[in-house]
Each structure stands twice: as C-alpha cells, then as structure tokens.
Amino acid sequence: MERGELRGVVALDGPSGTGKSTVARRLATQLGARYLDTGAMYRAATVAVLRAGVDPTDADRVRDTVARADLRVTTDPQAQATTLDGEDVSAEIRGQEVTTAVSPVSAVKEVRAQLVAQQRSIIATALAEAGGIVVEGRDIGTTVAPDAGLKVYLTASAQARAERRTRQDTAAGRQATVDATLADVRRRDNYDSTRAVSPAMAAEDAVELDTTHLDLPGVLAELLAMVEDRGLRAVPTGSSREH
C-alpha cells in the first residue's frame, strides 16, 4: 500500500453498535490509510480459549492459552482478515459464543498487555509504510495510542446500538432479536466499563460524537472534517483535492 493522505493516528473508541468498524474502514479507505480492528484481535484470542476448552473466567489458563496463540490481523481496510494459528477466523469471531466470552477474556491483564504490544507494533509499521492508520476499539485513545493526533469517542443510545447490531447479525445470517441483543449490549457495556485493566472510557482529550441519529455518510463527514481541522490530511504528490 502506497502512502496515503492521512498523517498519524486516528483513534476511534466506543461501545459496540456505534458504527466504529464500518466508519473506520470507510475513513481509512478514503484517506488511503491502514486500518486496525483491535476488537478482532480480542475475539480471535477468545476463539483460541474456547477451542482449547478453557473457561473464559479462568484468568491463569486464559493467559497461558492466548500466550501460545498466533493472532494476526491485516491492515488493508478493503481486505480485512483475522487469523488464528494460520487459519482465517474472520467469520467465527463474530459468532454469539465468542461475543458472550470476549469480555472476560479481554479483561485478563496479561492478555491485554500482549495484544496492546502487538497493536502498537502494527501501528508503528503502518505509520512507517503508509503514513497513517485508523485504529478502532475501546481503549485506543487512553492506552494503545494515547498520542493519537485525533481521538474520537463514538456513542449512541443502547436501543439504537442494539437495533444496528441486530440488523448486522441478521444480514450475516446469524440469528438475533433486538431484545436479546439489547441485553447483550448492556451486559458488555457494564463489563467493559468496570474492568480493572484499561476500562472502556473516553480519553480526556477525545471528541465525543453521538451517532444515534446519524447515518454512515453523516458520521464519515464529521470525522473527515475533524481530520482536516487537526491538519492530519496531506495531498499526495502529483494529485489534487476536490473542494
């Protein structure tokens, strides 16, 4: 991938269902930047735990299992894939079993330390090779990339997030109801915001963006304006930008 228009790191944080993944990929694609889905890494770690028959709440066994796993993600926003020990698990990580177990797995401090170190390495490589990267998750602005040039915390009402996730799951062929998804959204919100290590929260210098009543083009437009305002967009040599 050639160097794109983004210069630096855009950190997108927020709970499930706020549109982080979709808009992060779109933003990275439009700016010719790399893209990192940190949540996919924690989900792949959870697949490793479940395949090993380990109780997700057994912190010691979870730590040891994830330490042995080879977790990798691609950073091309148009060809994002997640692998575990060489196997593509991009579809499996979105299943309900993984969704239910990912919070306790991601709460293990050694797991977070391992994956944060890997995430920082991925970011460094992306900056050197492409000039910029859009990173999304729950602790990017506070822990993974505290020096990001732009930090945005996406929010939305629990009901709106549940409805979005239900539509996504249904479209992907997974069984889901709004009521069940809403209960899961609230459970994960509570778990992730109260965990001892890197709780999900907005960085002090993050811009909060409520997406409850915004569609995808609307969120993307807001983010592009923020990138421009921060001076993080550069036009590649030999090209011109439409105004």
TrEMBL record:
Cytidylate kinase domain residues are 10-228
Q: Which GO terms describe its cellular component?
A: cytosol
Q: Name one GO biological process term.
A: nucleobase-containing small molecule interconversion
**Region: Disordered, residue numbers:** 1-20
Q: What Enzyme Commission number(s) does the record list for this chain?
A: 2.7.4.25
HAMAP family membership: Cytidyl_kinase_type1 (MF_00238)
Name assigned to this protein? Cytidylate kinase
Which organism's genome codes for this protein? Kutzneria buriramensis
Q: Which gene encodes it?
A: cmk
